[in-house]
Amino acid sequence: MEGKTGQTVPLSEVVRSRGAEYNRRMGLLRFALWVLVFLLVIRLIGRIFRASFHIEVITPHGRGNQRQPPGGGAPGTGAADMAQDPSCGAWIATDQAVKVNTGATTQYFCSQQCLDDYRKKLNG
C-alpha cells in the first residue's frame, strides 16, 4: 500500500493504524454507554427517594399527596371547607366526609374504614 507521500507502507502498519482507530471509537462508545448507565442509576435512586419521602394517600375522594392542607377553603371563595382525618391524616372536604359529633366537636373522616380504625384505636 502507498502512504500519503507515495511511499509503500507495510501492511502491518495499516492494520495497526486501523486497529488504533477502532479502539478509539470503541472507547468512546464504552464511555457513552457508561454515562448512560450512570444517569439511569441516578434517576432510579431519585425515584426511590421520592417514593420514600412523598407518601401518597389514597382515599375514596381522590388520590394525591394530601398531607398538607390545600390552599383555599377560605370563607367567600366558593371552595369547600377542609378538615383533616384524625385516623390517616388525609385532608377532605367537610361536605363529603363521614361526620361524627362528639359533644362540642365534630370529627371528619375520609371513609367509614378510617372511622372504624379510629374507634378501634380508642377502644383498645
Strand arrangement within the widest β-sheet reads: 1-2
**Number of separate strands:** 6
Q: Which regions contain 5 or more consecutive residues with pLDDT less than 50?
A: 64-68
Order of helices and strands: HEEEEEEH
Q: Give me the Rg, rounded.
A: 33 Å
Strand content: 15-25%
- What class would the helix/strand composition place it in? alpha+beta
Summarize this structure as a short list of keywords or feature phrases:
rod-shaped, two-stranded antiparallel sheet, 124 residues
Question: Which helices and strands occur, and which strands form pairs?
Answer:
Layout: H1 11-53, E1 57-59, E2 62-64, E3 82-84, E4 91-93, E5 98-102, E6 105-109, H2 112-123
Antiparallel strand pairs: 1-2, 3-4, 5-6
Summarize the structure.
The chain has 124 residues and is an alpha+beta fold.
Structural notes for this entry:
This protein is an alpha+beta fold. Helices cover 44% and strands 18% of the residues. It has helices at residues 11-53, 112-123, and strands at residues 57-59, 62-64, 82-84, 91-93, 98-102, 105-109. A two-stranded antiparallel ribbon has the order 1-2. It has a two-stranded antiparallel ribbon with strand order 3-4. The protein starts with 10 loop residues before the first helix and ends with a helix.
